[in-house]
Amino acid sequence: MINVSARPSNFTFDPHCTALVIIDMQRDFLEPGGFGSALSNDVLPLQAIVPAVQRLLSLARRYSLTVVHTRESHSPDLSDCPAVKLEHGLPGLRIGDPGPMGRILVRGEPGNQLIEQLTPLHSEWVIDKPGKGMFFATEVHERLIGAGITHLIFAGVTTEVCVQTSMREANDRGYRNLLIEDATQSYFPDFKRATIDMITAQGGIVGRVAQLAELEHSLNTRSPL
Ligand code: TIU
To answer: pLDDT tens track of the chain, all 225 residues?
Structure first.
């Protein structure tokens, strides 16, 4: 077992029963011209976490954790996109509209690809999700159960939207969650801070939070319980 120093209390996990979940590190959110900038956000601050997520991914690969990459995406006919989501954003810059990286947030388009620095290995899972949460309208819960996964380590974007929603969904399904603070980012620094505060308040209401260095230290020294 691995014991990580975390807030509000330590996170203990067996690497065989743990998955790293990297939420939506796709061009749509990190590069200009995608869904993130269509929603009037400055996307460049999100790129600051790429080196940390790369380190985290390398760590997970070294210790043979299951790795799950998610992408927020919709089918080309948009049949999995509810009207309320289609109406979101400025006209001409909505889901399915053409942009510099292809149709915005549509599966298979260049903008929908995970960023090159985080290219998945063939053995890793890539989950396309039409919602903010990773469990809505996907088969990831059944796959995680099948793989014997009980603990999830989260990273990715954005902290208060898809990451937090996925952590809440995971908590309701009985997973034990850890968020890596320096491997997640928001377009709004205050929202990231508030989300970390929400997660760690009330005894860790939907999980725990640690720095990447704390996870690295625990895995590299394999500190005993
Ligand atoms: N807008 C925003 O902050 N996020 C999203 O729309 N999706 C994700 O968080 N992936």
So the answer is: 999 999 999 999 999 999 999 999 999 999 999 999 999 999 999 999 999 999 999 999 999 999 999 999 999 999 999 999 999 888 999 999 999 999 999 999 999 999 999 999 999 999 999 999 999 999 999 999 999 999 999 999 999 999 999 999 999 999 999 999 999 999 999 999 999 999 999 999 999 999 999 999 999 997 433
* C-alpha to C-alpha distance for 167 and 149, rounded to whole angstroms: 15
Any ligand 1 atom below 6 A from CB of 72? yes
In whole angstroms, give the CA distance from residue 10 to residue 101: 42
Contact 192, 184 (CB under 8 A): yes
Cβ–ligand 1 contact at 161 (below 6 Å): yes
Could you tell me which of 36, 24, 185, 23 has the C-alpha nearest to residue 100?
Answer: 36
Whether ligand 1 lies within 6 angstroms of the CB of 24 is answered as yes
| 24: Cβ contacts below 8 Å, ≥ 6 apart | 70, 71, 72, 156, 157, 158, 162
Q: So which residues are the catalytic ones?
A: 24, 129, 162
Return all residues near 59 (Cβ < 8 A) that are at least 6 apart: 215, 216, 219
Burial class (CB in 10 A: 0-12, 13-18, 19+), 129: buried
